[in-house]
Amino acid sequence: MNIAAAANETLAHNSNLLVYSAMAVYTLAFLAHMAEWVFGSRSKVGRTAAALTGQAKAPAAVAVRTAAKGGTAVLERPKVITRSAPGSRDVPDGPGAAGGTEKGDLYGRIAISLTVLAWALHVGGVVTRALSVQRAPWGNMYEFSTTFAAVAVSAYLILLALKKNVRWIGLPLVTTVLLDLGLAVSVLYTASDQLVPALHSYWLWIHVSCAIISGAVLYLGAVATLLFLFRDRYEAKLADPTGKQPGAFATSVLERLPAASSLDKFAYRVNATVFPLWTFTIIAGAIWAGAAWGRYWGWDPKEVWSFITWVAYACYLHARATAGWKGRKAAWLGLIAFCCYLFNYYGVNIFVTGLHSYAGV
Amino acid sequence: MSTKTDTPRDPGSGPETGAQPAGDAGTDLGAAGSQLSTAPKEEISFPSLGPVGWARWFWRQLTSMRVALLLLFLLSIGAIPGSLIPQTSIDPVKVDSFKADHPTLSGIYDKLGMFHVYSSVWFSAIYLLLFISLIGCIVPRTWQFVGQLRARPPGAPSRLTRLPAYTTWRTEADPDAVLGAAHRLLKKRRFRADRAGTAVAAEKGYLREVGNLVFHLALIVLLVAFAVGSLWKSEGGKLVTEGDGFANSLTQYDDFKSGPFFDTDTMEPYGFTLDKFDATYERTGPERGTPRTFRANVTYYTGADGKEHRTSIEVNEPLEIAGSKIYLLSHGYAPEVSVKDGRGKVVYDGAVPFLTQDPKNFTSTGVVKVPGAETKDGKRNQLGFQGFFVPTFGGKGSGSMFSQFPALDYPVLTLTAYHGDLGLDSGLPQSVYQLDQKNLKQYSAKGKKLAKMMLPGETMKLPDGDGSITFKGVKTWASFKITHQPGNGLALGGAVAVLLGLAGSLFIQRRRVWVRAVRGADGVTVVEIAGLGRSESARLPEEIADLAVALAPDAPAVPDPEPETETETETETAADAGPDAAPGTDGGSGAHPSAGPEPEVPAQPTDSAEPADPSEGARA
Ligand code: HEM
What we know:
The complex is a heterodimer of chains A (361) and B (620). Chain A is mainly alpha-helical and 361 residues long. Chain A has nine helices and one strand; from the N terminus they run H-E-H-H-H-H-H-H-H-H. Chain A folds into two domains: 9-45 and 97-359, no CATH class; 46-96, no CATH class. The longest helix of chain A has 40 residues, at 3-42. In chain B, strands 4, 6, 10, 11, 12, 21 and 22 form a seven-stranded antiparallel β-sheet that branches. In chain B, strands 2-3-23-24-1-25 form a six-stranded antiparallel β-sheet, with helices on one face. In chain B, strands 13, 14, 15, 16, 17 and 20 form a six-stranded antiparallel β-sheet that branches. In chain B, helix 4 (65-84) packs antiparallel against helix 7 (121-150), helix 5 crosses helix 6 (103-112) and helix 7 (121-150) packs antiparallel against helix 9 (206-231). The longest helix of chain B is centred in the first third of the chain and has 30 residues, at 121-150. At the A-B interface, helix 1, strand 1, helix 5, helix 7 and helix 8 of A face helix 1, helix 4, strand 1, strand 8 and helix 10 of B. Protoporphyrin IX containing FE sits between chains B (2, 37, 39-40, 63, 65, 68, 72, 130, 133-134, 137, 212, 216, 219, 505-506) and A (275, 314, 317-318, 321).
């Protein structure tokens, strides 16, 4: 074995170590998030939200005050009054997992710090893996899964850094990242190896990176959609005091989530933003297929499922624009669409053989 | 549709207002919000009888969003079976074995076209209906949109306070001057602005609609490109051994498929010779044996003049000649043998492509057929050899006849020999990779079947002086796919337009802004700015605030006279919600409980600092 190969093996080994360390830290972050939720559930502070009215109006004003420049006329940047469209429930966002408690909030912050640390280790693992194989780390399902999770966490952290209200996604995200990594290191693990020449192409970088980014961000959208379905049901129950009321546990969890309308809007924004990227992923794949296999579209199972996923998301977007399909029905379509994405990744690789065979499932 | 549900409107403004020419009302929000989108209306009402009525009803249904949704859904479901059941177009061998394994099921599948889903009648029906629906939707929308471009933005609703984003202040400036300034400001900000009465109406973001129309049109372009590609395409395979060549004519292909409109008479004259095939593999480390490069070095010519060029073809890097593309698919080994018959005459000399059994290390099998051999007495004695080739032999002690490495490190050819009738004269097509052993007899020596493991240069003698076979060396073969597919450029253009259209449609926000300036009874001018987006957006309030700031020099604010109470707007919000859901009943426009658009920010009670609103009186 020559020196370079030995170095590569060391790198591959380090990569594994980093991924395992990341998993350990993600586990701590998971526990911290749990603590956040638990402490949050103990306090009633700041949670009058259960009553759908009252302080509902609190976060409403978009009052940005910046004094206009210029000497003479001094007009304050005016308050703009916004009002929701009629027909929607005027429900405020929940206070978040910490439920307004200081202790819960502290644990939440610890969880985020731990997530950042785990993410750094995780990205380190992905990068060393790439260095060890001297190519993009997307050649097999193990590499795809680890990168996928890293990108999902990156997207979450970016949204956090942009001060978006996404802390509620922390627990479900960390949980699934742990599951995904666990699956990757146990079932899907493949020793680092080379790509067959068909995968040697800069389209690999373009096509697969877009596929991973789309999937990771769509995942955030799917989480929001799922939570929307729960929260929407919860709000519907509260809005109808004569009907069955949500249980104590459901209330405790759901009342702290953002309002159904916020979740729905978040999911829509995410899906609508990523849809063009997913479209581009498919187009790039078609161009690559044209270069590698002599036809840009051949109904290979992977192509078929990319297409199905794309059409399913188009369905979702259409549903959002169609009366009677907004809200829950559209949300279901959004979930189905994400399941198509997942099946395209796991199902097609495992159950269906096609040209897109990855090395060693 | 979105026009109805995305925008707040007063009771009584039914879906029909959506079709009203913009700007002709101005009394309520219905007109103000009309035609922010050109999406088709939803109707489920049943037509009055009569064939024309029904035809129109049917057409409306087909081009409605609901049906588009349904067809899209069907399309995605319809695509599923093709990915799970083997398809003739992709892998005919697999289809045959599936049919052998499941005879009854495949009978049903055959009837349903399940082995060629993507060209089946029902799948075609779904996408054709979808595209008819699309055209039926796009064309009227385009006209409608052109009409909107020519019309003026709809006039200001009487109560601007009802709009999703609203601000107001008082100023000493003359209303006329304020409106003039607002008009100029909006124009400068690339709004289409129109001054009517006491208000300026403006609209921006038409590119959203353009993007949406471009996107849907581009889908049609893609479909056309796809159709052109499959109707006029041709596609064939050819296996070429080093030193051999290919010329583009039907007889030269090993297999050939073409679309129904492909004309074989118009095949371009071109060809190429495979000079040498290079393959390199990782030699050490955990990735030992992994291919690093595959390169076919070729000399090609096009047209009648036959001028030659040298180039190489690699995986992912096809050679383009005369509108066709030549792809490198795979490679393998072709042992070179020479066969002498009983008379000592060389009856065969050449390289025989062997088929790869193990794609990793290239253990390969193949046959040599020598129809022209005779015995030393001059009797017809056709010879056949069954061979087994490994590029890297594991060594005698390894006990395995499987190759250890893909490169030609220790090539070994093992042969068994047959004689008799090869069956080539029967007229039935025969595989060049298999011996038809029906009328063949295997040679034996000393009671054992004759078999020999040979290194290059070694010879195996046949018993009874029937001749010999020499393993001279090894060449590499490469298989190519040669395709001609028109419409690729169109498809690429369509794809780019799809992307651009989508970006415009999803990222551009279409919105309307109204500025009203009215002098109140106390002689102070009240300026109001309100905005309405096609979908609620966080940016709209920001934009309104920006406009207000920009307008400030022309309409300096004066202090508010008295604070106002909070309760009023709130009760009004509740009053709005009720009746507004009601119009849904007349056109199926969605009285779904959660069907309302989502608030960017929940409604805001009137700010205590808000000045008196001239329209407030009318509202109460
Ligand atoms: C070939 C299948 C189709 C695909 C892939 C497709 C895809 C899309 C996508 C992704 C959008 C989202 C853009 C946005 O939200 O602004 C959209 C919007 C839209 N589509 Fe389609 N579409 C298809 C067929 C149709 C058909 C047949 C119709 C007509 C009935 C139609 C009518 C519309 C309309 C009106 C919008 C705008 C919705 C709105 O105003 O929000 N589409 N389409």
